[in-house]
């Protein structure tokens, strides 16, 4: 990363993490660069894969998703076919916000959002536990989010 990014690139990334809808003109003003130069740098950062997508971050609770859950999943066997099938099934589940392959007590940790207890029950019993090879599921309800961030710490010194 160090070889491809200079301080201006890092500043652009920091600004875009804070406001992905910022105009090129406003971003150029903030970092004292011309709008065409900012546009060229952003295009380069996109082409290199540093910027993967632009999204609107929604308030899940205002949209009725009151339950945030962490679900640990263990598979029976770690055979490639079973793992691939699990990955395919989880990718198709809109309730799963994140899925991480782990070491430790569980093979996977899923971040799941549902509207209520009944939706959680349906998700667990009718969808997740029916994936072939799932042997154990442990669900924890999130009582409160202490820190939530989508920003990487790019402004930290190395």
The CATH first-level class of the largest domain comes to Alpha Beta
Number of strands: 4
CATH superfamily of the largest domain: Lrp/AsnC effector binding domain/regulation of amino acid metabolism (RAM) domain
- Give the total of domains: 2
Specify the overall morphology.
elongated
Q: Roughly how many Å apart are the termini?
A: 12 Å
The main β sheet shows up as: 4 strands, antiparallel
Report the mean per-residue pLDDT as an integer: 95
The neighbouring-strand order within the major sheet is 2-3-1-4
Structural class: alpha+beta
Number of helices: 5
Strand content: 15-25%
Query: In the CATH scheme, what's the topology name of the largest domain?
Result: Alpha-Beta Plaits
Rg of Cα set? 20 Å
Helix share of residues? 25-40%
The CATH architecture designation of the largest domain is 2-Layer Sandwich
């Amino acid at each position: 990363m160090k070889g491809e990014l200079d301080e201006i690139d890092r500043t652009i990334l920091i600004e875009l993490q804070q406001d992905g809808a910022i105009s090129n003109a406003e971003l150029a003003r903030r970092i004292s660069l011309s709008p065409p130069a900012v546009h060229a740098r952003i295009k380069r950062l996109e082409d290199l894969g540093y910027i993967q997508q632009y999204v609107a971050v929604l308030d899940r609770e205002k949209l009725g998703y009151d339950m945030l859950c962490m679900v640990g999943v263990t598979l029976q066997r770690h055979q490639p076919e079973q793992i691939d099938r699990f990955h395919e099934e989880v990718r198709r589940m809109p309730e799963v916000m994140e899925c991480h392959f782990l070491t430790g007590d569980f093979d996977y940790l899923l971040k799941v959002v549902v509207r209520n207890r009944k939706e959680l029950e349906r998700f667990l019993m009718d969808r997740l536990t029916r994936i072939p090879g799932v042997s154990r599921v442990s669900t924890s309800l999130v009582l409160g989010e202490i820190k939530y961030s989508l920003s990487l710490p790019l402004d930290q010194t190395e």
